[in-house]
Amino acid sequence: MAITLEEIKQLRDETGAGFNLCKEALESAGGDHDKAMDFIRQKGAMKAEKRSGRETAEGVIGVYHHGVDQRVAAMVELNCETDFVARNETFRDLAHTLAMQVAAMKAEYVSREDVPEDVLEKEKEIIRGSDELKGKPDAIADKIVTGKLEKFYQETCLTEQPFFKDEKKTVQNLIDEAVAALGEKIIVSRIYRMEVGR
C-alpha cells in the first residue's frame, strides 16, 4: 500500500514527529492511522528512556490563565537540553498546553515521586478507613488500597493524568512524543496553579 504525502503530513501535524518517523510508522501500520500513532508513541517512549540521563538546563515557563474572568491560572517549568529546542515552537506550545492541563485538571504534583510521604500516608489511612474495606481479607484489602492509590496518582500527578484533549493518552505520552519529535530529553520541573478564593 502506497503512503501518500498527505497522510504523512496529517500524522506529522498531529504528533509533531519527524517526516521519516511518520512515514515509517504509516508503512509499518499498513496505512492504519491509529496504529501509526501507537508506533510513534512507542518510539517516543524508547527515545525518552535513552535520554533519561542527560542534563536539562534550558527551557521555558508555560503560562495559562483561564477565560475572560481570569480566575484560574497555571504555570509549568518545562526543561530541555539546549536553547535551540527551548526556542522551538513545538516545545513552547507543549509548555503552554501543559499549563492548560494543570489549570483544567488541577494537578498538584509533577509525578508520583513528588508526592510527599505524609500526604501519601494520609491517603492510605483514608482508604483503609473506608467502608469498602470493612470485613475484607487482608490480601483483597491490599489490592483495593493499591488500586485506589493508582487512581489518586492519576488524578493528582501531572505526568500520569489523562491528557485533557485526548484521554487515550497520558501527559507522559504527550511529553514522550515531543522527545521523539525534537530529539532531546524533556522534563517538567515545577508546576503551580492558582484559583481566586482558594
Structural summary, described in words:
The structure is a single chain. With 198 residues, the chain is an alpha+beta fold. The chain folds into 3 domains: 5-50, Ubiquitin-associated (UBA) domain (Helicase, Ruva Protein, domain 3), CATH 1.10.8; 58-111 and 157-195, 2-Layer Sandwich (Tetrahydropterin Synthase, Chain A); 116-155, no CATH class. It is 52% helix and 17% strand. The chain has 8 helices and 5 strands. It has a 3-stranded antiparallel sheet with strand order 1-2-5. The mean pLDDT is 86.
Strand share of the residues? 15-25%
Q: Kindly state the number of beta strands.
A: 5
Question: What's the gyration radius in Å?
Answer: 19 Å
What is the CATH topology assignment of the largest domain?
Answer: Tetrahydropterin Synthase, Chain A
Q: Could you say what the CATH architecture of the largest domain is? A: 2-Layer Sandwich
Looking at this structure, what is the CATH superfamily of the largest domain?
Elongation factor Ts, dimerisation domain
Overall geometry: globular
Question: Which key features would you list for this structure?
Answer:
three-stranded antiparallel beta sheet; alpha+beta; 8 helices; Helicase, Ruva Protein, domain 3; globular; Tetrahydropterin Synthase, Chain A; two-stranded antiparallel ribbon; 198 residues; 3 domains; single chain
Topology:
Elements: H1 5-15, H2 19-28, H3 33-50, E1 58-65, E2 72-80, H4 83-86, H5 89-105, H6 117-128, H7 138-156, E3 162-163, E4 166-170, H8 171-182, E5 187-195
Antiparallel strand pairs: 1-2, 2-5, 3-4
Helix pairs in contact: 1-2, 2-3, 3-8, 5-8, 6-7
